[in-house]
Amino acid sequence: MKTPSEFELIKQYFSALTPSRDDVLLGIGDDCALLQTPTGKAVAVSIDTLVSGQHFEPNTSAYDLGHKSLAVGLSDLAAMGAEPAWFTLALTLPGVDVEWLQDFSRGLAALAGEHGIQLVGGDTTSGPLTISIQVHGFTDVEHTLKRSGAQSGDMIYVTGTLGDAGAALALAKGDAKLAAALNLADRDYLQQRLNKPTPRVDFGEQLAGLPTAAIDISDGLLADLGHILEASGKDNKSLGARIDLARLPLSAALQKLPIEKAQQFALSAGDDYELCFTASPAEFGCLQADFADRCTRIGIVDSQAGIYRIDDKGKLVTITTEKAGYEHFTSS
Amino acid sequence: MKTPSEFELIKQYFSALTPSRDDVLLGIGDDCALLQTPTGKAVAVSIDTLVSGQHFEPNTSAYDLGHKSLAVGLSDLAAMGAEPAWFTLALTLPGVDVEWLQDFSRGLAALAGEHGIQLVGGDTTSGPLTISIQVHGFTDVEHTLKRSGAQSGDMIYVTGTLGDAGAALALAKGDAKLAAALNLADRDYLQQRLNKPTPRVDFGEQLAGLPTAAIDISDGLLADLGHILEASGKDNKSLGARIDLARLPLSAALQKLPIEKAQQFALSAGDDYELCFTASPAEFGCLQADFADRCTRIGIVDSQAGIYRIDDKGKLVTITTEKAGYEHFTSS
């Protein structure tokens, strides 16, 4: 069974768009690409699939989709502190739409150029719109940021602001109360945060070696912090966390919403592609001095499983005790 | 937008099935896998997507599909002479069908075990059945088999027999004349050739350094040999080939068909995943001595573009002059 040769041409078309690297010994056009890893470095790889209607609204612009498809992978590299190098693209398309392809590839190429990452292989097939991108980056093994090194007493940090993508998604789904609380500029801003997330690649690389654990926030803070706490636990016992809700970083747009609604987005909504990391109290000074403008301390790791907040009377209140927080989360 | 956490569990489920390698510093379960390339080797990578109804019949057994999804990638490694090491799996499923997943993963794991290749990452999403696998292997740069080294006068070889998968596909599409010419055992054999192809990994590794060019036959001999001839040409001028049709290796099943029909499958049908390679006449003795039982010499590379056969009267007859031979091929 064949795919049209038009798809072969697309493959060639994409190959010229991204940076040309010396460590790509053979790029697109043979049975395999041939890649040279620098001596002493490990290769970090991650593959992510975006399915139309599942991971993006079918009416998302092709340019934004090109950006986002690569951003998701770059965010995984950022979460490891890895330096982007190469990516592959498996693109399933309902048909050949030249204008769509041009826009998609422009969005992809712009972000690829920004991070010096080269497209080295791909496959283009016919079917319902599905985009799989695998990213490859370099990392010093001993400085790699894993999920599994957090300890009780570590401070918890996040980059940027949280909940923006979730609010944009609620808007897209027709939340009228939300729309009424925001002006056009706010809504545009949130839409950009959903469709064109900024992977924190440079920050991840600069941090490498400092955090005890790190992850990118794709499923929502509770879920992803939950992954750190679970992976860092010992003897099948997860660690826990105490979150100071008042410290959750909120964009100007989200600050216009009722505070509980904004915090719910910040805690539970995914697709922000910010980083969440933990660091020992000994690193507090360094983080304050070098990174204070790019991350916010939101809480502390605890030996007691579950994620808690402290209420007005100083009492611990469960936010969630579920591993996959986002699925079962109800506003506290 | 979320995928069900059931899919997260599937990811974990797959991770235990394939061989555990020392060069996998961090496997499934973090933002990235961490992989260690041997000093002095390059990494060969290839990604392929199989879409239901496009690349396999929707009623293909899950076990066979698991096998075939990985076989397609292993065949690309074979075509480069690379040693399999790692793979990733991006699996889009219409729903969670435990029995289907068990069968699929068993088929995948059996072939992975045979070739010592470990699953190091993946993504599982909800949507129409789509399988993307990226394979990674090691190769000595100077011994890598590329498409681009063939020269006029080189001999052309193929492994195994050709056209079996194409005949199976014609049977699946209800070709009654074909079915009548074959018994049940023949039809089963052809079906196996289509659904469970044998990637020529060991052979590719043993050959490495000997051929002037190589490719795997996924789109059909004419198309794939055409890729070698095009990539090996100079100054935008493709090389050509003369094929001795009588030498095309045919299985016992295909030998029961009218010879022109069998040859048409062997020339034009894809999905065989045999290797096609070219070698200088100086290597003839070595190939005869070491590999004669595993490959067949079918023709010679020519400086004149196009693929030709020699007719009964010794005249050259065009088989195809098209680059993408399979699309425009009509029986000669």
Question: Would you give an account of this structure?
Answer:
The structure is a homodimer of 332-residue chains. Helices cover 35% and strands 25% of the residues of chain A. The longest helix of chain A is centred in the first third of the chain and has 19 residues. In chain A, 52% of the residues are buried. Chain A is built from eleven helices and 13 strands. Chain A is globular, with a radius of gyration of 21 Å. Chain A folds into two domains: 139 residues, 60s Ribosomal Protein L30, Chain: A (2-Layer Sandwich), CATH 3.30.1330.10; 171 residues, Phosphoribosyl-aminoimidazole Synthetase, Chain A, domain 2 (Alpha-Beta Complex), CATH 3.90.650. Chain A has 332 residues and is of the alpha+beta class. In chain A, the strands form three sheets. Chain A has a seven-stranded mixed beta sheet with strand order 8-10-7-11-9-12-13, sandwiched between helices. In chain A, strands 3-6-4-5 form a four-stranded mixed beta sheet. In chain A, strand 4, helix 3 and strand 5 form a beta-alpha-beta unit. In chain A, helix 2 packs parallel to helix 3, helix 2 packs parallel to helix 7 and helix 4 packs across helix 6. At the A-B interface, strand 2, strand 3, helix 2, strand 4 and strand 5 of A face strand 2, strand 3, helix 2, strand 4 and strand 5 of B. Strand 3 of chain A pairs antiparallel with strand 2 of chain B.
